[in-house]
Design goal:
152 residues; mainly alpha; 6 helices
C-alpha cells in the first residue's frame, strides 16, 4: 500500500465522522439523553484525532502521484486548501469534546447552549468535509469536475 492508497482508504473516516457528529448533536438537542451526550463528546475527540492523521497523509499522497500524467496541481491545491479549513473546524469540535467532558466531570452536565454551539460547528464541519471530499474526488475523477482541465 502506497501513500496515495493509504490516504484514499483513510479519507472516508472524517467525512463519515462529520455526518455522525451532526446526527448525534441533533439527537441530543431532541432527546437530551446524558449517555448520548457522553458518546458525542468522546466521538468529537476521536474524530479530531483521526482527522489529523488523515490530513497528515495528504502530502505524502500528493508526492506519490505528482509525477503521473493525469496529475493536475490546481485540483490538488484546491483540495488541500479546503482540507486545512475542514481540519481546523474538526479540531475545534474535538476541543469542544474535551471541554464538554471536563464540564461533565466537574458539573455533571453540559448546558443547552453548549449543544447549540456544537450543532453550528458540526454543521460547518459537515459542509466543509463534504466540499473537501468533492474536491478530492475531482483530482482523479474527471467526470465530477465542473470545469475543464487547467481551469479553476
Amino acid at each position: 500500500m502506497n501513500a496515495a492508497h493509504l490516504h484514499l482508504v483513510l479519507n472516508h473516516i472524517p467525512v463519515l465522522g462529520a455526518i455522525i457528529s451532526f446526527v448525534l448533536v441533533l439527537a441530543i438537542l431532541v432527546k437530551k439523553d446524558p449517555g448520548l451526550k457522553s458518546l458525542a463528546l468522546w466521538w468529537f475527540v476521536l474524530i479530531g484525532a483521526l482527522g489529523a492523521v488523515v490530513y497528515l497523509t495528504g502530502e505524502p499522497a500528493e508526492e506519490s502521484v505528482e509525477h503521473l500524467s493525469w496529475f493536475q496541481e490546481n485540483f490538488v491545491e484546491r483540495h488541500e486548501d479546503t482540507a486545512l479549513w475542514a481540519l481546523i473546524v474538526t479540531e475545534v469540535l474535538a476541543l469542544m469534546g474535551v471541554f464538554g467532558l471536563y464540564l461533565q466531570k466537574k458539573k455533571h452536565t453540559t448546558p443547552v447552549s453548549f449543544w447549540r454551539v456544537a450543532i453550528v460547528v458540526a454543521g460547518i464541519n459537515l459542509a466543509l468535509m463534504g466540499w473537501t471530499a468533492n474536491l478530492g474526488g475531482q483530482i482523479r475523477h474527471t467526470e465530477i469536475r465542473d470545469t475543464q482541465p487547467g481551469q479553476h
